[in-house]
Amino acid sequence: MYSRLVCIPIILILFCIPVLADPVTIPLGGEVYLGEEGLDIHLAVPYPYTSIAYYAAGSSPGRDQPLDIMQVSQNRFSVIADLFYDKTGAWYQWDPVRGMPGQVAFIVRNPRISLKVMDRNTMSDRSYGTASKGTPLVIQVETNIAGITRRPDFGYNDGPLKIQIMTPGGGTLSGVVTPGGGQYQFSSFIPTGELGYAPPIESGGWDTGWSGYESGLYRIEPQFAVNRMDDNLRSYSGRYTLRGTEVTLGTERAGLHATTDRVVRGDPFGVTITGSPGTPYVVWVEGGSGSGRSGDQPPMILSSQEGVRQDRPDGPFTIGSYRPYGKDRTLKEIVPGYPYSGVYYYAEVNPDRNGRRTVEFRTSQETDDQRYTIHIEGPVGAANPKYDKIQVEVVKGSVSLTTGADTFTIGEEIRLRGVNTGSCDTYLFITGPNLPSAGGRLDAPRRAVVNGNPSSFTMADSDCETWDYRLYTGNLGLDAGTYTIYAVSTPSDRYHLDRTTWETIPITLTRPYISVSSRRMTVAQGDELTITGSSGGNPDAGVAIWIFGRNFFWYDTASVERGGYFSYDLSRAMTSDMAPGEYSVIVQHPMADGEFNLWPDRNREVVLGTTPWWGAPVFRVGGPGALQGPAAASALINALSSQFIDDTYTEYSIFIQNPKIGIDRESLTGTIDTPIIISGTTNIAPDSKILIEVTDEQFGPTQKGSSGEWAGYSGTTTTFAGPAGEQEYLFEIPAGTLPASTYQVLIQAVSSPGTASGVLTVEYPVVETITPTVVTPNITLNNTTTPTITITPVITAKIVNETIQITHTQTPVSIDVPYKDMVNIQELMNRSREPPVLLGLGITLGLLLAGLVVVLYSWQQRKKETETKEPEETDNQEKITNEDAPVQPQADESQDES
């Protein structure tokens, strides 16, 4: 009972203790950080300021306009990273009513925490290094979030950042042991400036020699620990810094770590040793037969490395005299003695201040491809030295070779490239018909390569991994055929490839050629003409275009694109100046040497050639004595066919025609209520624009006092290829655009002189005369006659001056009925002359006809029943008839009146 009484006050006291919240009250001109939320800014942005404003760099508040204005809540303000990341700095109070700024409300900053591990005694940086156990350490904290500690509600109970240390065993430390057995919690670290230390330097630092700390790697990570900054910035990849560090404590053994456990022969590799800083260790390599001769050498340690000491090849062998623990031989006796007395197979290494040192090993083509063991032992002179070893495998590597294709035209450039992991140099040679059997230089195929002589080979450009070489086939002096190209990692010919890496690829060389896409082309004057074709060899000079016609000569060159395709355009202006007729086109290819052997002079009057001397005249194409048209084309073909000219050619013809436009006659007639489509054919090129103008045929001077109204329509259309080989066109005039009349149609090409004209007739739509016939009923009802009905009205409709007139013709109607109360039919028919009445009359007569059919059917049935009755029933029927007799005269009298 007593214990319960004691607990109750304690519980009440606990509930009365105020909850310590993160500092959120921002003073005027205070600092806020990206990612903070729930801030109270009523001191920084007091009433009447309800917004904040941001000015661009160099602006003057109160004079310049703000770059951004943001309405804020004074009690719940969040510095959202995605909104403020590019607007850090001063934000001003803003009165939206007056549109004026106030004082600096607060300053937005990108938060930053960066950690380093420092030796407390020497203040040297041990980050990412090694510190012997027992070395006192401190964590240097560089941060800009000290502004949080200057807020009025900061309680100094917990700092705005958190530091955690991950141990080698996977645990997490929130504090460390200080000298004398004290404890320091990282949560008590309060940054007061840009730089601080945890634990403080005066506390003695982190006692790494405490027995609870094992040797190994310790990772140290910071976190933001205020106003949910860490959570809000976790998904933000912008500019904020949260950088940790790591340190290795007191390794008690010598360690080795290789950059790779598999290395290609010819490539270097590194081995990192770990040990006590400032104490020497010995490193050596073991493997192979021990001769060190060519093809049997282990990897060698690169000389003149920092922290690495080696014996001289001529002695004394101080380091080589070291005897590893438990061995009966020295280092000099363990490693091969060739070359350089074996001094590059071992070394003495001093770890740096972090207890690490990386040693580089080199391999070459003399290195044997096998597995090697690298040893470390030390410290040198220790009674019980530590030891470690790793294995590294040296492999041959490989060479790859690609060309992108397997067939090339003589004169074309071949790009050879690949990867060489066997060495930094790639040696090339070629074999084939009538070439040296061991291989010839790639750039001079008839010069044999010499095994082991690098200068006799063609060498590719290389960066010790990839290689590249461009081979121009026009100057090789090779005939068409199939050849084999070799890529080798050493200067080895075809018969010495067993100890090297190599690759081959076959290529086929073909003779150059020239072709065009069409042998005959027709084009109208003023249209653009494109000459296209393909060329083998991709000559740098391109292809030459020669055009001959009556009193016409043209010469130009066209470049050849990748793949051998070329095109040449004759502009509209050029075809406009060419008279209608046939023209000869000759396309010239320069062949393998890439040079034209025939060309015109500068004045385009004389065709020159390379034989019997360079620039010798061949024939004239201009001036007195010039060959014209077909004669000039024939002379050029004869010259190109000479055995002294290696150029090849192809020829074809083009035809220039006068532009013409035709109009389909049936398209020049239409009505006002349907679209009018004007169509026709033309020889103008497809996709050419055509202008069509439709004007009133009666267009002319307007008489004084007249309205001057007239109609017309114009527009453009585009030609398209038709099924018959010529181009076609279509032009649509919307329905109702043109009233009934006749119009002049003018059609002309936009880019050529072709024209056409015609007369368009627009009429009213044709309406057929409607003559409905209605049977006039002639009704007679008696005991012996079948009633009949006949009605014959005639309705005629026609259009006169755009007005529909309806004529209704009614023939006399006579109806015999036995009832006096029936409507006078004649009067009804007279009234039916009106269109509404006529419609009603038609409906009424239709119903009447249906009713009469029913009556007639009933009457006929009753008549049949009467004829089949017994005599006494007949007497009764006659009696009934006699009783009804007085009614008949009344019906007859009514009929006469009618």
TrEMBL record:
The keyword ATP-binding does not apply. Keywords: Membrane, Transmembrane, Transmembrane helix. The keyword Repeat does not apply. Coiled coil: none annotated. The chain crosses the membrane at residues 837-859. Residues 863-882 have a biased composition (Basic and acidic residues). Residues 29-231 form the DUF3821 domain. Residues 863-898 are annotated as: Disordered. This is DUF3821 domain-containing protein. It comes from Methanospirillum hungatei.
